[in-house]
What does this fold into?
Amino acid sequence: SGNHYLTPADFATIYNVNAGNITGAGQTIAIIGIARVNNQDITNFQALSGLAAKTPTVVIPPNGIDPGPALTAPPASGSVSDGQVEATLDVTRATSIAPGATIDLVISGDTNSGSGLNLAIQHVINTNLAQIMSISFGGCESLNGRGAVNFFDALFSTAAAL
It folds into this structure.
């Protein structure tokens, strides 16, 4: 058909993860995002991949903004937001490589005081919400400037120390 799919077993092979020894049990993975996921997309992926159904717990930082519900079908204008697509990808990968882990989707829209992504990251760090934090948003450091690089370096250094 020309379609190509990346299954949990493919992911484990590509990243040299022995899936039989890693379950994620007892761990919490915080997925950082700016949009909710359509839980049916998550459970469909899991069913097609032979995984137990497990949807993420949505966490909105107290100083964040709820970005609203996930779209369940493409809108008339085209497709779901990039934020929802990215969150769906991140959640499906986390649940497939660590099926025993608790998955928290930590999200916020942008506020007058800052970026929703930054608020979500800071919430995970400040509350020690998870042992693992995954963020796949952003851009090349050279495009974001020294100030952004220093900001994220300080955040992630704090997270690593915790």
About this structure: The mean pLDDT is 90. The helical segments are 8-14, 39-48, 82-97, 116-127, 141-161. The longest strand covers residues 28-33. The chain has five helices and four strands.
